[in-house]
Structures are given as structure tokens and as C-alpha cells.
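Bit of a strange request maybe. I'm writing a small parser for C-alpha cell strings and I need a real example to test against, not something I typed by hand. Could someone generate the C-alpha cells for this chain?
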Amino acid sequence: MAGAVRCQARGAGLMRGLARIASSSLPIAAPTAVIGGRILQRSDFVTDSGFIATRQQCREMSTHVSWDYRGQRQMVPLGGRVPSMAVDAFVAPNVVLAGSVEVQDKACVFYGSVLRGDLNKIVVGFCSNIGDKCVLHAAASSPTGLSAETQIGKYVTIGNFSTLRSCTIEDEVVIGQRCVIMEGSLVETHAILEAGSVVPPGRRIPSGEVWAGNPARFVREVSYDEIAAIPRLAEGIREIAESHMGEFLPFTHEYQLKENLCGMKGEVVIAQLLLASLKLIDPLW
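Reply from user aminoacidic:
Good idea to test on real output. This should exercise your parser:
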């Protein structure tokens, strides 16, 4: 018992020693730039793909303004391949649609996903949804001789962190999280693929069956209740996406200017005149 206690104490001391070594070996933040007469330390900076700004500036900026200038392009045309999405589709701001990608009505593509149609076409069908950080790609050709496009049917739910490449997913299918579906694969209507499953190239998942594993194998038949719940699941996720859509509307911020100016002591009249001159409010308001 005493030996075990001594080993634990020795291990804790070793971890503290490593922490001290790591902290002492880190370089001291040195001035990196001078902006407006102010010396900025390395820790003052926040680096993004499109801009470099101080933390104080980031705090002062409107959320929507800083997001608009994040430097990431959502729609990336590649030659003659141009992405498109329906007016009522939800595509998260940090999603990338590159090349020949079509997102149809009421479809949802959630945060961090990448759809690359640089070699072939990708279609996301009506009321289907793609979870966070998924990757959809389409190869130039398929080993099965079938179409190498990536086709997602209607009312399809694809779990987070999944990867699909040149496969066909028919209507009303559920694909669990972290699934991998390879070239030439076919997942038929009312099929369910459990989380973490891997579908090899050219594999067919028959209609009304549950498959799982690496490589994916038959588990059981899909029940009638599960079949009825598949479209309801897609519709429920669509309702959640609508609440996200409201946070990224292209509205302006004149109301914020009005509130900020009117909140200053003794500046209410000046604010009204300013907004009237900008034709943002009625002059007689």
C-alpha cells in the first residue's frame, strides 16, 4: 500500500515537472507589430484565413460583421462547374460547396461540411440533411461502371462526420454518424446504416434492412415503425435548421445604430436628425 502511494506521488511530481518544463520552454511573447502607435504582442492577435485583428477589435465588432469577413468562401465555382442551392435550403456559413453541387429545396447542410463536386456532380435531395463535418466527394469514374455522381435522395439523414464518395443514397434512408460509403455503393430505400459502418466499393444495401460493421453486414429487417419514422426524422431536423436560418439573415444593423446613439445622454435629438438624414427613419418620428 505504501509503495503504491509513493508511486502515485512520484507520478504526480513527474507530471508537475513536465508542466514546468513545458511552460518554461515556451517563448516569451514578443512585440510583433506596431499599429496606430500601439505595440501589439503575439497574444493580442487572432488569426483567421481572411483577416488578422486584435482581440479587443474582435470584441468590439458586431458578430455578423466579423462573420462576414471571416475570409471563407461558401460557394466555389470550378471552371464550368458551379454550385447551386435552393432559396429555402439551409447551408451553414462555414460549409463549402465546390464545383458541381446542387442542394435542393428544404435540404440542410450543417456546420463544417465540405461537398466537393470538382470531378463529378453531387445532389442533395428534397428535405435531406447532412450533419456536421461530413465530406461528400464524387470521383471521375466508378469501378462498377455505374454513374460516379454522388446522389442523395429525399428525406435522407446523414450523421455527423460521415464520408460519402460517388455513391447513390435512395429516398428515406438513415446513415449513422462516422459512416464511410465508398465508390459505386448503393443504399436502397428504407435502409438504415448504423454508426461507424463502412460500405466497401460496389456494395448494395437492400431496401428495408439494417446493416452495420466494417465492412458493413446485414443485422436485421427494418420495422414498420422505423420506416414511418424516417421521413419524420428528416422533417424534424429541417425544423431545427429553420431556427438556425434566422440567425444568418442578410438584414442590416441600422436599428443598432439608432439604439446606441439614443442611449447616449443628451444625444437623442442628434441621433434622430442623423437617422433622418440617412433616410433610415421618418423625419417626423
